[in-house]
Structure formats: structure tokens, C-alpha cells
Specification:
The protein is about 0% helix and about 45% strand. The protein is mostly beta strands. It folds into 2 domains: about 5-80, no CATH class; about 85-200, no CATH class. The strands form 4 sheets. Strands 8, 11, 13, 14 and 15 form a 5-stranded antiparallel β-sheet that branches. A 4-stranded mixed β-sheet has the order 3-2-5-4, with no helix packed on it. A 4-stranded antiparallel β-sheet has the order 10-9-12-16, with no helix packed on it.
Length: about 200
């Protein structure tokens, strides 16, 4: 009796070379909830994981249609599409330590970044914390200082932005960020804001 094959559906999309997972030589990044039996696992010098598993097959499908033809005697699993863009979290600080707020940024329920009012401006890539499609982003702002400092006409503020971005020379450029939250020293009280970020 012929051995049944496990059929994985993968999307044809560009992926990063480092830290990827391959099954029998085929890229399967983003696949979850699968246990491979009688498999050999090898990690190469670049951090890529290679799984050699006889009895398993990978079928690649076009991400634009998502259509695939089931093969009799096989089990079909759907793997998520791969993201083709990179995403970043960045802050803007008018006067370090004077905004009176700290921010916690959560992505799909997990803390992605804690931002203190005294922290310098930062940019952090969060692509690996996101999943293809819709992502829930929550920004929790906590008032940590009630005093409003006198620094001239401009009230100190702390701003966090999250969205699609690119690296250009020595800086990160966010293109129309989906998440923008600004808290200033003139405000009072805590505040929580929720967003939906759709990756592509």
C-alpha cells in the first residue's frame, strides 16, 4: 500500500534568507501546528533550520489565488501567507523625561515594547511579531508625572508610531504608519487605544 503524504500549502512570496525553516529543501516559514515524525533536523551556519522528513511532501500555491488541488490519500494543511513588507515601531520625543507618560505597545496580546519617558528616540523592527493579515495593536499610556514642566511654547510630548517602513542609509522611514499615539505633559490620566494593522 503506498505511503500517504502530508501536503502543506505554502504561498509563493519573497522571504528573508536567514533564520528560515525548510522541509525537504522547500521553504515552509510561517507553518505552525505540525509535528514531523522520523525526521532529521539540521541547523546551518546562517541559522536556517533544515528538516529532512521522508513521507512528507510540500505543495506550493500562488498566494494571489490561494487555490490548490487536493491529492487523494493526503492530508492538507494551510500555511499562512508570507509578508513581503517590513514593519517598524518608532518613537519621537520632544524633550526626554518631560512628557509625563510611559507607553506599553502590545501586538496580538504580547508586549512588544515598553517605552519610558526618559528613553531616547528609538526604532525597532517588529516584523517577526506580526502575522500575515490582521493584527491587533494596543497602546497603553500611563501617567507617571503630574507636573507640567515649563520649557517654553512647546509642551513636551512622547509619540509612538508603528507601520510599514524601509531602511534608508542610517535611518528608518515609516510610510503612512497605521498606529500613531501622542501623549503630552499637558494631559492627565491613563489611556488605552486599540488599532488593527493589516500587513501585506
Amino acid at each position: 500500500m503506498p505511503r500517504a503524504f502530508l501536503l502543506l500549502l505554502l504561498s509563493l512570496a519573497p522571504v528573508a534568507a536567514a533564520g528560515s525553516v525548510y522541509l525537504n529543501g522547500v521553504l515552509i516559514d510561517g507553518t505552525t501546528g505540525v509535528t514531523f515524525e522520523k525526521a532529521t533536523v539540521r541547523i546551518d551556519a546562517e541559522g536556517n533550520v533544515h528538516i529532512d522528513a521522508p513521507g512528507y511532501a510540500v505543495k506550493r500555491v500562488d498566494a494571489r489565488t490561494g487555490q490548490a488541488v487536493d491529492t487523494p490519500g493526503t492530508r492538507t494543511l494551510s500555511a499562512p501567507a508570507r509578508m513581503t513588507r517590513r514593519y517598524w515601531l518608532a518613537t519621537e520625543v520632544s524633550a526626554a523625561g518631560l512628557s509625563g507618560y510611559e507607553l506599553d505597545v502590545y501586538i496580538n496580546g504580547a508586549l512588544a515594547q515598553h517605552i519610558r519617558q526618559e528613553d531616547p528616540q528609538l526604532s525597532v523592527e517588529v516584523t517577526r511579531k506580526l502575522r500575515p493579515g490582521e493584527n491587533e495593536v494596543r497602546v497603553v499610556a500611563r501617567k507617571v508625572s503630574q507636573a507640567t514642566p515649563d520649557v517654553g511654547e512647546r509642551t513636551p510630548f512622547l509619540r509612538v508610531m508603528l507601520g510599514e517602513g524601509t531602511e534608508q542609509s542610517d535611518r528608518i522611514v515609516l510610510e503612512a504608519p497605521t498606529v500613531v499615539v501622542t501623549r503630552s505633559a499637558a494631559e492627565s490620566g491613563n489611556r488605552t487605544q486599540d488599532f488593527v494593522l493589516v500587513t501585506r
